[in-house]
C-alpha cells in the first residue's frame, strides 16, 4: 500500500535485510554503483564497479508472517560489462555499471538496460523450469549417440527441472558516445530510449543497435569555450516527446522532440539565481546537479546538487517550489571536502510511490527523507549495528552548534568514506533499498 | 564577493591542489573525466582571481612605499633654506606619510591630495596614484585599502610612473612579503615574477629565477586587468555580484600556468608561445601532455 511515508510520526522504518560482504575490507569491484527497482517492485537490480549485475527477487508474502513483506533473495547474477581498451586513444574503459533501467514487462521475460561509460546493453532475464528430454540423436548428457544403436524414434518431451534464471545479452549499443555516459532513460513509448554523456544525448530504438539519433549536442566548436556539461537526463514518465537534462551549471532544460530533430533549443529552462551571499571558491561545484528525477505524476521533477534537493514544478522555471537542505553543515567544510574529493560525489535521489516523500543519501551512511506534505524530515542510518531483524531505525541528528546533545554526532566525527550515493524506493510499497559502499540495505515500513 | 576568510594564502593552496588534481586525473583509470576537470578549472579560476588581486595589491603597495621612500630621501637632500612655507609643510607631511603605517599611507596621501598646490603636490600625488578628486575615499582598512589605492585610473598612474621612474629611479626593488622574493624593476623591466613562485610552490619545481624581459606595457595591461577586477569589486560592493559576469576572454599576461586556466579550458590549448617564452620547462612538459590529452577528445 502506497501510503505516506518517511517523516511523519506515523511511519517507522525497520531493518529488513542486508546484502553483501560483512568485512570492512572492501574490494573495489564490489562497490555498488547503481540500484533500481523494476516497475512492479518484485525485482531489485544492483550494478557494481566490477561490471556485475545482481538481481534480487521478492518472495511472495508468507502466510506465517503477515507483518512482513517478502524478503529479497538473489535471483540472477551475471557479468554485464568487461573492461575494455580503446587503442586509438590509449584509454581504458571501465566496466563499472553507471546505470540500470528496467523495461516495462511485456511477456514472461524481464528486460533491462545496463550501461558503463561507453556501451549500453539490453539484457533479457528469463526463467527456465522445463527442459526437453528424449532426443533421438543425443544422450541425456549431450553426447551424440552411435547411429547404429538408434532403432526407434520418439518425440522429445518437456519435463520439469529446477528453476534456472538465464540472462542473455539481446542487443549491444556501442560506439555512439565519445564522452562518458552518465544516464539512460526508457521512453514511455517502450520503443525508444535515450543515453546521455557529458556533451551529447542520443536517441535509440530498442530494436536497432547499429544507429542512433543525436538529439542534444552542447559541445562547443572550440573546446576552449567549454563551460558546462550534461550531468543527467530523463524522459518524462507520460509524455513520450518530452525529456529533461541537467547541467553542471545547475540548470535544467526541458526539451520537446516534436519541435525539431535536434533539441539544442530548449523548450524550458529551469534555473534558480545564485545567492551572492553564499559565493565561494566552490560555488560552481556545489551547484552542479548530480541527479534529476521526474515525479511519478509527471507534474514535478526533483534535482540533487551537493547540499540540497530541489523540487521543481514544470510550469515554473524561475525557481523551485521546494528546497530541502540535506547537509547544510558541510557548507563550512567545502575546502576540506574539495581536498579529499568528496565534493565531487554524485548523490542520487528518488521519489516514493505517490510522490509525497523524497529520499537522498549523505555521509556517515546517513540517508535523509523529506516528507513534502507534513514538511518533516528525518535522518536515518544504514549500519550493521542497527541490523537486527525488524528493529526500528532511530532518527539520527548531526549537531551543528557548539553543544552536542546526547546521541547526536558532531560534524567532525562524520565518516566521509561511508557515503550513500544510491537509493531506490519501491514503486508501490514503503520498501527502500539503500546502498552503502559495498552493502545493500533493505528497510521496510513497520507494520503493526 | 568571496568571504574574507578565504584570503590569498588559501587561494594559493587551492591553486596547487587543483593543479595536482588535474595532473593526477591524467593517470586515472577510465580516462580523463571531463566533468570533474571542468569543475576543478572553475576552482582554479576563482582562486587565481583572488590570488592575483592580492598579489597586485601588494606589489602596488610595495612600489608606492619605495617611491615614497625615494621622495623622502630626495626631500631630505634638498637645502631646507630653499623651501618656502608651503613646501616645508609638504615636507613635513611627506615625512609623516613616510613614517606612518603602510595602510594609512594611501589614506594620508589621498586626503592630502585634495588640497595640494602645484609642483611637488602633483608629483607626490601622481606617485601615490591617488587622484586629487579622491578626497572622499575612506580611511583604508586591510579589506578595502586596495580599492582606495586603485580606484583612480591606474593607466595614467603607470604612465606617470614610467615617466617619473625614468627621471628619478632607474631601479626599484620590491620585496614580496608572501614569498620573500625580491623583484627588481630596471627601466621598466621586471627581473623576477613573484607570481611564478606560487606555481613553483604548487608544482614542487625548483627552477631558478630566470631573467625575463617583460615589457612594462605588459605590466600596465596587468594593472589594467587588475583595474577590471577592482572595478568589478566596486560593483560587488554595491551589487554583491562580483563573480556573476565571468570573463572568458581574459588574456592576462601573467606568465605562469595559472594564467592559462582563465576560464573553463580557455587557455589550455592556446598561448603556447607565451608559455614557451616564460614558463619553466617542467611546467611546459606537464602542460604539453595535458593539452594532448584534451585534444585527444
From TrEMBL, chain A:
Repeat found in the keyword field: yes
Keyword Membrane applies: no
Gene Ontology MF terms in the entry: protein phosphatase regulator activity
Listed GO CC annotations: protein phosphatase type 2A complex
InterPro entries, A to Z: PP2A_PR55, PP2A_PR55_CS, WD40/YVTN_repeat-like_dom_sf, WD40_repeat_dom_sf, WD40_rpt
Region of interest (Disordered), ranges: 385-404
This protein's UniProt keywords: Repeat, WD repeat
Coiled coil ranges: none
Domain of life: Eukaryota
Listed PANTHER family: PROTEIN PHOSPHATASE PP2A REGULATORY SUBUNIT B (PTHR11871)
Family the UniProt entry places it in: Belongs to the phosphatase 2A regulatory subunit B family.
Complexes and interactors: PP2A consists of a common heterodimeric core enzyme, composed of a 36 kDa catalytic subunit (subunit C) and a 65 kDa constant regulatory subunit (PR65 or subunit A), that associates with a variety of regulatory subunits.
Protein name according to UniProt: Serine/threonine-protein phosphatase 2A 55 kDa regulatory subunit B
Organism: Eleginops maclovinus
Automatic annotation (TrEMBL), chain B:
InterPro entries noted in UniProt: IER
Domain of life: Eukaryota
Family: Belongs to the IER family.
Xref: PANTHER family: IMMEDIATE EARLY RESPONSE GENE
Name of the protein described by the UniProt record: Immediate early response gene 5-like protein
Amino acid at each position: 500500500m502506497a501510503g505516506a511515508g518517511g517523516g511523519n510520526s506515523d511511519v517507522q522504518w525497520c531493518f529488513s535485510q542486508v546484502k553483501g560482504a560483512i568485512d570492512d575490507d572492501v574490494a573495489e569491484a564490489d562497490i555498488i554503483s547503481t540500484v533500481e527497482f523494476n516497475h512492479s517492485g518484485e525485482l531489485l537490480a544492483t550494478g557494481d564497479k566490477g561490471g556485475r549485475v545482481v538481481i534480487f527477487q521478492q518472495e511472495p508474502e508468507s502466510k506465517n508472517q503477515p507483518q512482513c513483506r517478502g524478503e529479497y533473495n538473489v535471483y540472477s547474477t551475471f557479468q554485464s560489462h568487461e573492461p575494455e581498451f580503446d587503442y586509438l586513444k590509449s584509454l581504458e574503459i571501465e566496466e563499472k555499471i553507471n546505470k540500470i533501467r528496467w523495461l516495462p514487462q511485456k511477456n514472461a521475460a524481464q528486460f533491462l538496460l545496463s550501461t558503463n561509460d561507453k556501451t549500453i546493453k539490453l539484457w533479457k532475464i528469463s526463467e527456465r523450469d522445463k527442459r526437453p528430454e528424449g532426443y533421438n540423436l543425443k544422450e541425456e548428457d549431450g553426447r551424440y549417440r552411435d547411429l547404429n544403436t538408434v532403432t526407434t524414434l520418439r518425440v522429445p518431451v518437456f519435463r520439469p527441472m529446477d528453476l534456472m534464471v538465464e540472462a542473455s545479452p539481446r542487443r549491444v549499443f556501442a560506439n555512439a558516445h565519445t564522452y562518458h555516459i552518465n544516464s539512460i532513460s526508457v521512453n514511455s513509448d517502450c520503443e525508444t530510449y535515450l543515453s546521455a554523456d557529458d556533451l551529447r544525448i542520443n536517441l535509440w530504438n530498442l530494436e536497432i543497435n547499429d544507429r542512433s539519433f543525436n538529439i542534444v549536442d552542447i559541445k562547443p566548436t572550440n573546446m576552449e569555450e567549454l563551460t558546462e556539461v550534461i550531468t543527467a537526463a530523463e524522459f518524462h514518465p507520460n509524455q513520450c516527446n518530452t525529456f529533461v537534462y541537467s547541467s553542471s551549471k545547475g540548470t535544467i532544460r526541458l526539451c520537446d522532440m516534436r519541435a525539431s530533430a535536434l533539441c539544442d533549443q530548449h523548450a524550458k529552462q529551469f534555473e534558480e539565481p545564485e545567492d551572492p551571499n553564499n559565493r565561494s571558491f566552490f560555488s560552481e561545484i556545489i551547484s552542479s546537479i548530480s541527479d534529476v528525477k521526474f515525479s511519478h505524476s509527471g507534474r514535478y521533477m526533483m534535482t540533487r546538487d551537493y547540499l540540497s534537493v530541489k523540487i521543481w514544478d514544470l510550469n515554473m522555471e524561475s525557481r523551485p517550489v521546494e528546497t530541502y537542505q540535506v547537509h547544510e553543515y558541510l557548507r563550512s567544510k567545502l575546502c576540506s571536502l574539495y581536498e579529499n574529493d568528496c565534493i565531487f560525489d554524485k548523490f542520487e535521489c528518488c521519489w516514493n510511490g505517490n510522490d509525497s516523500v523524497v529520499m537522498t543519501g549523505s555521509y556517515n551512511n546517513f540517508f535523509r527523507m523529506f516528507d513534502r506534505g507534513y514538511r518533516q524530515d528525518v535522518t536515518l542510518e544504514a549500519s550493521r549495528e542497527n541490523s537486527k531483524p525488524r528493529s526500528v531505525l532511530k532518527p539520527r541528528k548531526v549537531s551543528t552548534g557548539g553543544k552536542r546533545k546526547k546521541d547526536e554526532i558532531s560534524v567532525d566525527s562524520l565518516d566521509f568514506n561511508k557515503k550513500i550515493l544510491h537509493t531506490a524506493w519501491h514503486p508501490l510499497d514503503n520498501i527502500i533499498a539503500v546502498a552503502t559502499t559495498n552493502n545493500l540495505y533493505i528497510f521496510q515500513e513497520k507494520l503493526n | 564577493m568571496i568571504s574574507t576568510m578565504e584570503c590569498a594564502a588559501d587561494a594559493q593552496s587551492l591553486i596547487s591542489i587543483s593543479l595536482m588534481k588535474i595532473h593526477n586525473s591524467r593517470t586515472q583509470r577510465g580516462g580523463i573525466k571531463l566533468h570533474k576537470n571542468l569543475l576543478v578549472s572553475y576552482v582554479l579560476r576563482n582562486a587565481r582571481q583572488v590570488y592575483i588581486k592580492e598579489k597586485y595589491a601588494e606589489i602596488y603597495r610595495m612600489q608606492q612605499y619605495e617611491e615614497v621612500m625615494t621622495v623622502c630621501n630626495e626631500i631630505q637632500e634638498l637645502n631646507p633654506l630653499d623651501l618656502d612655507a608651503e613646501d616645508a609643510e609638504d615636507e613635513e607631511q611627506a615625512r609623516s606619510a613616510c613614517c606612518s603605517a603602510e595602510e594609512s599611507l594611501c589614506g594620508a596621501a589621498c586626503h592630502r591630495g585634495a588640497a595640494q598646490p602645484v609642483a611637488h603636490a602633483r608629483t607626490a600625488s601622481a606617485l601615490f596614484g591617488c587622484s586629487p578628486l579622491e578626497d572622499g575615499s575612506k580611511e583604508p582598512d586591510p579589506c578595502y585599502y586596495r580599492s582606495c589605492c586603485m580606484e583612480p585610473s591606474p593607466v595614467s598612474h603607470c604612465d606617470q610612473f614610467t615617466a617619473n621612474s625614468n627621471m628619478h629611479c632607474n631601479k626599484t626593488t620590491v620585496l614580496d612579503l608572501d614569498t620573500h622574493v625580491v623583484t627588481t624593476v630596471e627601466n621598466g623591466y621586471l627581473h623576477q615574477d613573484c607570481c611564478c613562485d606560487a606555481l613553483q610552490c604548487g608544482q614542487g619545481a625548483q627552477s631558478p629565477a630566470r631573467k625575463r624581459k617583460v615589457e612594462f606595457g605588459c605590466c600596465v595591461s596587468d594593472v589594467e586587468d587588475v583595474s577590471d577586477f577592482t572595478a568589478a569589486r566596486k560593483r560587488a560592493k554595491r551589487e554583491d555580484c562580483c563573480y556573476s559576469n565571468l570573463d572568458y576572454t581574459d588574456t592576462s599576461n601573467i606568465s605562469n600556468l595559472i594564467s592559462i586556466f582563465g576560464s573553463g579550458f580557455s587557455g589550455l590549448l592556446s598561448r603556447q608561445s607565451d608559455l614557451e617564452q616564460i614558463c619553466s620547462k617542467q611546467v611546459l612538459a606537464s602542460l604539453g601532455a595535458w593539452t594532448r590529452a584534451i585534444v585527444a577528445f
